[in-house]
Every structure is written in structure tokens, then in C-alpha cells.
Amino acid sequence: MSYDPRVAMRKAHSFTGLLLATATVALLADGAAAQQSSATRVIVLRFEGRGASQARSAVVSEVSSNFEIVDEEQAVVTAEQMGVDVSTPEGMAQVVRELGVTLVITGSVAGRRRGGVTTLVVVDPEGTELSRRLGPEPQRSSDRAEIGRLAVEAVNEANAVLTQHCQAAVDAANPPPDQPV
């Protein structure tokens, strides 16, 4: 087999590109993991329905032990300062971006007694749903503990979805060197 300098250069270039891409992805993955555990800022909006305040309290209590909670009142003050109406999706998106919120949790409680259901929804700052969980009505302390556990599970899943979206963006911005752009 003969030595072709053009082939050797192409292989070296591909290898260097692969090393750079691998290092970039590793750094981004490390950064994403660090951000996920230490900088995930969550706001828990008011819940709706009978028992909503107990369900929301359970979510705030459990989520705050794992993630940074942004107080809902802070969002109201920020909205007033910005002159934004938070009752609209666009207004809420502006406020949560301004506050550096990563995820928004909303919820509702519907039904009565043993047929009651608590719905938890985690969305990104633009309002795109990332995760949803159904839990019991918050009647007993064990129900509230389950609601809190489901909220943390939903936030973790939403973080994983955001990480996948970031990875997909990195992959799209850095195609393999062998493929034309």
C-alpha cells in the first residue's frame, strides 16, 4: 500500500476534529450536569382546585431541597417593574427569563376524596411542556409526600429533556468532519 500525503492529512484532520468535538461535548456535558444540580432555578406557580395550597406546599418543600426555588412574589414584583402582564404566556416567559428561571411548575387538584388527582406539569420558560405527573389528592401527609416526590421526579425528567435539547443543538452545530454541512 502506498503512502498518500493527502489521505494522511485528511485522516489527521478528521482525527483532530473528532478530538475537538469530543472535548467540546465532554465539557458541555460536565457543564450541563453541574448546571443541572446547582443552578436549576425553579418557580412553582399557584395551583388550582380544592387542596391546591397543600399540594403546592408539598411541591415547594420537596423541590427546594434539591433545586433553587424562585419565590412567586419575586416574579410578581419583576413583572411590575418590567410593566409586563404575567397572566399571558408571553408576559410570563419574559419574567421567568429575566429571573433566570430554568423550569416552571404548575399544578391542579381535581376531584374529591379517594378519586381526587393532583396534576403536576413542568414547562420551560417558553411554556413548552417537558414533564407531567399525576398524583393523589393531598389529603394525608403520605399523599403530600408522594406529590413532593413526583415533583422532584418531574423536574429531573425535565432537566434531562433540556440536556438532550442542548446536546442536539451542539451536535447540529458541530457535524462530523466527514459529512458536508
Could you tell me the radius of gyration in angstroms?
22 Å
- Range of helix content: 55-70%
The major β-sheet equals: 5 strands, mixed
- In total, how many beta strands? 5
Terminus-to-terminus distance: 31 Å
Runs in which pLDDT lies below 50 for 5 or more consecutive residues are 7-37
Account of the protein in words:
- With 181 residues, the protein is an alpha/beta fold.
- It is 56% helix and 17% strand.
- It is built from 5 helices and 5 strands; from the N terminus they run αβαβααβββα.
- A 5-stranded mixed sheet has the order 2-1-3-4-5.
- A hairpin with a 6-residue loop joins β3 (103-110) and β4.
- It is globular.
What's this entry about, in short?
The chain is α/β, with parallel strands linked by helices and 181 residues long.
Characteristic key phrases:
5 helices; 181 residues; 5-stranded mixed β-sheet
Write the layout of secondary structure elements.
Elements (H helix, E strand, L loop, with lengths): L4 H34 L2 E4 L7 H13 L3 E3 L1 H11 L6 H10 L4 E8 L6 E7 L5 E8 L4 H33 L8
Parallel strand pairs: 1-2, 1-3
Antiparallel strand pairs: 3-4, 4-5
Helix pairs in contact: 1-5, 2-5, 3-4
